[in-house]
Amino acid sequence: MVSGLLLLALRAAPFPIPHSPFPPQDTTRGKAVYVKWCAGCHGDKGAGDGPAASRMLPRPRDFTGAIYKVRTTASGQLPTDQDVLRSIDEGLPGTAMPAWKDRLSERERRDVLAYLKTFSAFFQDTSQHIVPLTFSKEPGGATSAVALKVGRQFYDSIGCWKCHGKAGRGDGPSAPTLKTDPGEPIFAADLHESWRFRGGAGTADIYRRLRTGLDGTPMPSFSDLIDQKFLTDEQLWRVAQYVRSLSPQRAPEVRDVIHAPRLPGGLPRSPDDSAWARVERYWFPLVGQVIRKPRWFAPAVAGVWVQAVHTADSLALRLEWDDRSESPDTPWLEFERRVLDHVTSDDSVPAPADLWPDGIAVQFPRSIPAGMERPYFLMGTATDPVYQWRWTSMPRQAVAGLARGLSRFDVLGGGSAPGAGARFADGQWRLVLTRALATADTANELQFEAGRAIPVAFFAWDGSNGEHDTRMAVSAWYFLALDQPTPPRVYLSPVVAMAVTLGLGMLVAVRAQRRAGAGGDGGGRSRA
Amino acid sequence: MRLPAGVRRYAEHPFWQAVTILVVAYVVIVFVIPLLPGSALVPKSVVLQYMATVLVGVLIYVSDNEGRWHRFQDPIRAMLVERRLKLVRGGVLVAVTLLVGCFTLGQVRTTVSAPPNLRSIHPAPPADITFRGKAMTLTGLENPLRHEADSLAAHLALGKRVYYENCLPCHGDHLDGQGHYATAFNPLPANFQDNGTIAQLTESFVFWRIAKGGPGLPREGAPWNSAMPVWEDFLSEREIWSVILFLYDQTGWKPRTWETESGKGETGKEKGDG
Q1: Are B230 and B215 in contact (CB under 8 A)?
Q2: Helix/strand number for chain B, H first, E second
Q3: Which domains does chain B have, with CATH numbers?
Q4: Residues B234-262: pLDDT tens digits?
Q5: Is A305 within 8 Å of chain B by CB?
Q6: pTM
Q7: What ipTM was reported for this prediction?
Q8: According to CATH, what is the number of the domain A2-124?
Q9: Which fold has domain A257-482?
Q10: Which residue in A419, A482, A429, A426 sits closest to A319, CA to CA?
């Protein structure tokens, strides 16, 4: 299909594609590509108002204003062709904008770029000279303690923390007030999730955003602070290096199975227990619940980090997820109202903003399935319920119960609630949930067993984002495995195999040597 | 192209040729193949099979004439007997022993992995369904909007709107099943650009899958684990037929017709890895 389009594009082009960086662009052909692939979000007239737009935050780009976030030009300037092409090619991570590099031919991407520039009069003014800023090379020592300390120091002194927060999770004191130029609510980026940065996750990408700012958003350019000698270019690089150091080296890989090692001692029941530092973390992405009414298209929790351990008789899960507010949180009420105003709802009357709590749910089947079949992942059904732990920030407690679909949750009584320890700090919840592996209510409560693949799923609510009930973030089924300690006899067969191999090898060598000695010149055949 | 004598001695020696072929084959299978468009990482068991095939081929080549076979053995024999190669000999012995140890440990140590996710790709559709209380016969049913040639453009526009308002998060801008929500679901959303989805199906089948979603899949062939919503709760009959028009128009596929269907007998039910 794509190659077909490419072929078509080549055939239709009356001239060979030149190698110059700016080949002639065809706005007529560009329009055809735009109408087919871009207008659904960006709108027929390029105003960022296609049918998909009202269910997206951030909104699709409005090309009529020619204001672009990701540029290499100075703040307030038009982007270069390369800048816009980069966003088309690579997409904008963390948004609905995909990378078109492998989906449209180069010709089509260039043509569509030429066409979308026609939406704004600013690009028609050819007297304007669009020049990228000159960027210096990254200074060495990116990960050294000194570099990061300098970076942290300027992160504070140039005021990054005001929006991005003390720890960089987008929870600064100004964060609830942030709006784009057209008045849409916008989150300050969570600097611990660099794989969602719109302009790329590299240190050089971050440095460029610091130099150019994100036009149309409250994120300013810091180039003038260098001009004013408030800080040096190198020190701005250090800020970029510090910001980069907050996220994992690479985007977390989603793995199917959470391995819970067996601990010899007691369970770490506190969310800050140092024992958790030695346990593997697993990342699970969460997306909006868009399956049952009312759907939710703008979830605030991008995913959850999960760790698990067990002892002879109990299990502990630690869940960590970034959340900009300890809901219910009055300063965020206005932000929540803007979110609800901007995202189309399935309800005829938009839900009013309210002080909802934060929450998370961990879901298991009622018993470990024998085959491949699991209950319906979206909180079970009336006839095949699922066993869930639900924790809320207000009241701060966890309960266990049976979910029978999205609309019904029956709390189990009689001391069935899991143990819960939660802490909120710097834009992040940390929650430890514990339970005995075996319980008395075997009909309703999952009985955990070591060495089995136990289905598990996660759901999250950010109250300050207007999330409650079906307005939530969801995951698919994954698995939890309580690993058994490897019994010593397992090590027996490798040792035997190694001894046999070594013995045979030595035998072969000795025989070959003996034969070589006997044959004089070693001309006899030996085993290869 | 002439190689320096030192290099040529190795390049023409059957033992080093064999080693080179094995190394190149491994690099190609493990690193080059995944880079080719449309291919994925080669699973470990398949790598093992390929490498075994290459090894057999190499052994046939080196043993195919007596002289070459002897020359092939020379370095091995030298390694085994020569006094000056004592260190190499020891190293090879230890390395082989350790390899065997690691391999055996990997074989006997049990770790819990996700159960295999075998599933049917296209379930057998029912002959009749009830759509919002109205009985519909799927067998022989065609998209009624295709007969309204005058208003086809309007239906397509409606279909496009329905798609972007509802289907986009999972099935994506390019209809390739790679929307920004896609990676959170397993199995992944259907890729309409692929020649194995709507290109193989009648429009009535597509209507049934949209209307009834994951929860409407038949008991046989389970588990499905599909996150596909039940769209009859959201969309009218006309909206569903419109979005189907859009899917075919946007991807360029032609729906399977009932004539080809009856010619081929029953609907194709395929088993595949999710």
Answers
A1: yes
A2: 10, 4
A3: 5-108 (no CATH), 119-273 (1.10.760)
A4: 999 999 999 999 999 999 999 998 876 66
A5: no
A6: 0.85
A7: 0.88
A8: 1.10.760.10
A9: Immunoglobulin-like (2.60.40)
A10: A429
